[in-house]
Specification:
single chain, 177 residues, mainly alpha, 7 helices, 60% helix, DNA-binding
Length: 177
């Protein structure tokens, strides 16, 4: 269906369908940015409620791309191939996908796709610059301006969410296997 939508939209814009094929080929090559886009699409579709099947399918594609790129293992030798920043991005994208997998499995009553036993990526993040960024609640009322805010604690919150997802994986594994 996505393929048909791309072709239809492309044909309407320039009168040919060749452009639609170019857009479709983005899904046949594994890339970190494609994985990120698929995970954003997954979360957006999942939030709609009636698009959970599509969300599950896009998530599955993202998970398979992660395995295709070897992002489920954290090999020290990769340091020669990737910069420290790229390794950090790969690690965060992997754990973000791991969390998405557990949440979707829990809410949809399906088995997990990424098992912790199949991964070798530590829950360790090097870049914690956003940990103490200032955070204030956002609201459309004037009352939100009264709140002084607090540190964001983004890195420690994400680390805890990853650990919680590992525990969820164990529980879901007992239920659905």
């Amino acid at each position: 269906m996505m393929f048909a939508k791309i072709l239809t939209t492309s044909a309407q814009l320039d009168g040919s369908s060749a452009n639609g094929f170019e857009n479709c080929w983005a899904l046949d090559r594994s890339d970190v940015t494609t994985i990120q886009a698929l995970l954003v699409m997954t979360n957006s579709l999942f939030a709609l409620g009636d698009e959970r099947s599509a969300a599950w399918l896009y998530a599955g594609l993202a998970f398979r791309m992660i395995i295709d790129l070897g992002m489920h293992v954290d090999v020290p030798n990769l340091g020669r191939k990737f910069s420290d920043e790229d390794l950090e991005i790969r690690r965060r994208v992997f754990w973000g996908a791991f969390v998405v997998d557990k949440i979707q499995s829990l809410y949809q009553g399906r088995p997990v796709t990424i098992k912790e036993s199949d991964t070798l990526v530590p829950i360790k993040f090097l870049d914690t610059y956003e940990e103490f960024e200032h955070w204030r609640p956002f609201a459309y009322s004037s009352q939100s301006n009264d709140c002084p805010g607090s540190p964001a604690y983004s890195a420690s919150t994400f680390t805890s969410l990853c650990r919680l997802s590992v525990a969820m994986s164990d529980i879901l594994g007992c239920i659905y296997t």
